[in-house]
Each structure stands twice: as structure tokens, then as C-alpha cells.
Amino acid sequence: MITQPIEIGKFGRTHALNGHIRVFSYTDPQENIFTYQPCYIQQDDTFTLISVKLIRATKQGFIASIKDIDTPEKAQKYVDKIIYIEKSMLPVLKQGYYWHDLVNKDVYNLSNKNLGIVTALHDNGAHDLLLIKKGNGKLLYIPFIDQYIIKVENNIITVDWEYED
Predict the structure, then answer these.
(1) Domain residues for 50?
(2) Is residue 56 situated within a structural domain?
(3) Are 17 and 36 part of one and the same domain?
(4) Residue 103 belongs to some domain of the structure
């Protein structure tokens, strides 16, 4: 039974006639998604245990097999499903943060102005971006780099960022 699910990837469309399926990884490095076994998918309100094996890497992600899935028809039920692991499977980081640990934190600037709440993070290729939703519903992106992130403590992220509504 999974108690603290963490998203680590997503299944894409089926591939070929042998039940293989595309996998998009949220891990860093991306191929680490296959080191987290077992993993789970959510079906309705329950999590189902699955075993996923790397077949090969592609430019857009990976081709994988799911244990006991050997036809495109069987693989079809996994298309667009999120892949989860138990949070306790993640290694303890010596430095840095897991994205899921930053979501829902309040963001304040150096003037102690509440800029909003982190709703998601995105990788723009150069660095990670905090997506912050302000109280008025507006969205704000702040680069998650040392130049702007002063500290992450408890449930607050302090940033060097001025923002006018």
C-alpha cells in the first residue's frame, strides 16, 4: 500500500505490437525512473503495483515494457497514466530540494511581501522555475537559482524579487 505517492513520470502512447509503451520521466537524470521499483499507477481511488523495464531510450523519452503486458490492447489502459513511487524510496539529498518539497510553500520577498504560493516547478532548460500563484490569481515565474533564492526554511521561500501587482 502506498501512503505518500510521488509522481516520477508518465506513460505515453503504446509502441509496436508487443505491448511496449512510451515513458516520460520527471527524474534527474531521466533514466533514474527505472531504478525506482516497484512503482504504481492510480486507477480510480486505488494504486496498482507495476514493474516497468527500460527497453531503449528515444529522443522524446523512453520505450519500456510493463510486466505481464504483451499486447497493445493491454498496454492501452496505461496510456497517459502517471507513474508514482512511495516517497520513502527517494534518497536523502545532501544539498538541493525535491520539487515536491517546494510546492505549496509561501514565497516572500526581502521586503516581507507575500508574493504567493508555489504551485509547480518547471525546467526551462537553463534552470528550474518556481510557478507562484498570487492571491489575486495572477501567476509569476521566479528562477530557482542562487541569485534570487535567499533561503528555504520551514514553509517559506525567501526571494530577492520585487513585484508589483
Answers:
(1) 5-88
(2) yes
(3) yes
(4) yes
- The answer to whether 39 and 26 are in contact (CB under 8 A) is no
List, for residues 9-27, the tens digit of each pLDDT value.
Answer: 999 999 999 999 999 999 9
Instruction: Name the 3-class secondary structure at 47.
Output: strand
Question: Taking a C-beta distance cutoff of 8 angstroms, is the pair 145, 159 a contact?
Answer: no
Domain of 44, CATH number, reads 2.40.30.60
Question: pTM of the predicted model, to two decimals?
Answer: 0.82
DSSP letter for each residue of 87-144: GGGSPPPSSS--HHHHTT-EEEETT--EEEEEEEEEE-SSSEEEEEE-TTS-EEEEE-
- Condensed to tens digits (0 to 9), the pLDDT of residues 145-154 reads 999 999 999 9
pLDDT one-digit tens code per residue, 115-138:
999 999 998 989 999 999 999 999
135/81 Cα distance (integer angstroms) = 31
Residue 35: DSSP 8-state: G
